[in-house]
Design a protein that fits this description.
transmembrane, 282 residues, signal, alpha/beta, membrane, 9 helices, Polysaccharide deacetylase family protein, disordered N terminus, NODB_dom, TIM Barrel, two-stranded antiparallel ribbon
Amino acid sequence: MQKKFGYLGGCLVLIIAIIVGVGLRQRSAHQVTPATAHRPVTQTSHVKTTHVATTKPWIKLKRPLQLPILMYHSISSGNNLRVPKQQFVQELTYLKQHHYRTLTAAEAIRALKTNTIPQKKVVWLTLDDAYKDNTKIMATLKKDHFHATINVITGFTHKTNHLSLAQLKQMKATGLVDFGSHTVHHLDLNALTTAQQRTEIISSKSWLDQHLHQTTTLLCYPAGRANAATHKLAKQAGYQLALTTQEGLASLHEGRYNLSRLRITPGISTATFATLINVHHS
């Protein structure tokens, strides 16, 4: 009898084990493994994409480029170096309406060195001395998608009527303005010794490079005055171009360190302004 019960008990345990085993197998067949269940679905947002800007090739000119470099100083009233804001706005409105592009300093360098332009109508806006009232141009530059270059007297940034370092940084951050050197103390370079010229030219570049985190490539001569030694020193210091106050269109035949500009004076008509900048490129 005991053997019979033992035999029956063993069979019962075996049957239960088989039933449990079959149940577990069926359950596993209908379940997804944890690794699969928690595997993330690939999202397009996780794929890094690179935006490639499409830019038109620059136009190669058959004749030497004649570049209108506009020369402003203070945006105010009072003397022949001051252009009222209203006039400045009107002149930029003309540029906008007639589809001009304003160049950056880097673009101007490229244009003059390669004899190419990004489009047929181009000008380069420059403002000398970095007066505090130059902040008045920012709204117009932003509205019209224009750019300007301000030439800084680095030793004057502490003066009340000139842009401070903080203001220079704020303006640069907009991307609407870049900065060139107008030396340290705005002295007539051709009246200085070679050593004095070197200090004015190199020290101002170093200051701009350090404080504005840039490589300064543009030198603007105070009062437009320079001599052969000045040109040589500018090149040795690492400048790519230098501006004078000689009246006319800039061309590489003048030399990269002796470029002419168009002085914009207060009170000129829009028609006169249009005549100044009207250049036929071919």
